[in-house]
């Protein structure tokens, strides 16, 4: 009778341990990571620009700017996620060291090309690391695509018009989330967009039929700092 009692107690304890392990495993699977997170960042946009300008030569200068940025992430697993980044920026543009002597100007001139806004929605695939057991510091790397739309073009007071072709580009990133609570976190992020566009400057107001094509590389750095929420 004593052996039967001990065997029953052992079976009970074994069953309880199995049930507890199953509950722990289920909790781990459902609570170890949240599927969605959203971030709001302030982003410094720093173009690393260069240009091949026909007819008048020279180079290009594109202004830096600071913008708000919103992004959404979806986690397929606790390590793999995709991130959609939304933001728009405005930049002033001018050439540097262009030769406009053919229209009565100097041989080294900066030609004002007005301003343009960029809308570059970017989709990134990310890998998230968990180097700390408590998962407070979570770095990640990513790579993806962006499609940049150029809009609200203002040509300025020098030329008649400027046209930018929308363009497909590539992006890489690195950053980290620093958890403040189980739900809220601080984020720091660096991205590099590899982006170029064909630009056509209509300068027919300076000389009859004058059109100036250019291949422009923008290749901006995006330096972001913000806050986020998991849900």
From TrEMBL:
Top-level taxon of the source organism: Bacteria
Keywords: Signal
One GO CC term on file: outer membrane
Presence of keyword Phosphoprotein: no
Keyword Signal annotated: yes
Name this protein carries in UniProt: OmpW family protein
Pfam families named among the record's database cross-references: OmpW
Entry-linked PANTHER family: OUTER MEMBRANE PROTEIN W, PTHR36920
Protein's GO biological process: transmembrane transport
Organism: Flavobacterium supellecticarium
Record-linked InterPro entries: OMP/PagP_B-barrel, OMPW
Leader peptide range in chain numbering: 1-21
């Amino acid at each position: 009778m004593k052996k039967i009692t001990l065997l029953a107690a052992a079976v009970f304890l074994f069953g309880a341990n199995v049930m507890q392990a199953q509950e722990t495993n289920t909790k781990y699977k459902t609570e170890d990571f949240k599927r969605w997170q959203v971030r709001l960042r302030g982003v410094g946009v720093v173009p690393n620009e260069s240009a091949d300008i026909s007819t008048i030569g020279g180079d290009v200068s594109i202004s830096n700017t600071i913008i708000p940025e919103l992004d959404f992430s979806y986690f397929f697993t606790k390590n793999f996620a995709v991130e959609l980044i939304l933001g728009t920026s405005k930049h002033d543009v001018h050439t540097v060291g262009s030769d406009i002597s053919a229209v009565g100007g100097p041989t080294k001139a900066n030609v004002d090309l007005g301003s343009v806004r960029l809308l570059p929605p970017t989709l990134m695939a990310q890998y998230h690391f968990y180097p700390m057991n408590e998962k407070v510091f979570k770095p990640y790397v990513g790579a993806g695509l962006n499609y940049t739309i150029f809009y609200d073009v203002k040509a300025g007071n020098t030329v008649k018009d400027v046209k930018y072709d929308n363009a497909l580009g590539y992006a890489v990133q690195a950053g980290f989330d620093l958890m403040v609570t189980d739900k809220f976190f601080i984020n720091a992020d660096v991205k590099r967009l590899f982006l170029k566009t064909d630009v056509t400057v209509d300068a027919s107001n300076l000389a009859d039929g004058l059109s100036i094509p250019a291949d422009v590389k923008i290749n901006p750095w995006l330096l972001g700092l913000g806050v986020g929420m998991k849900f």
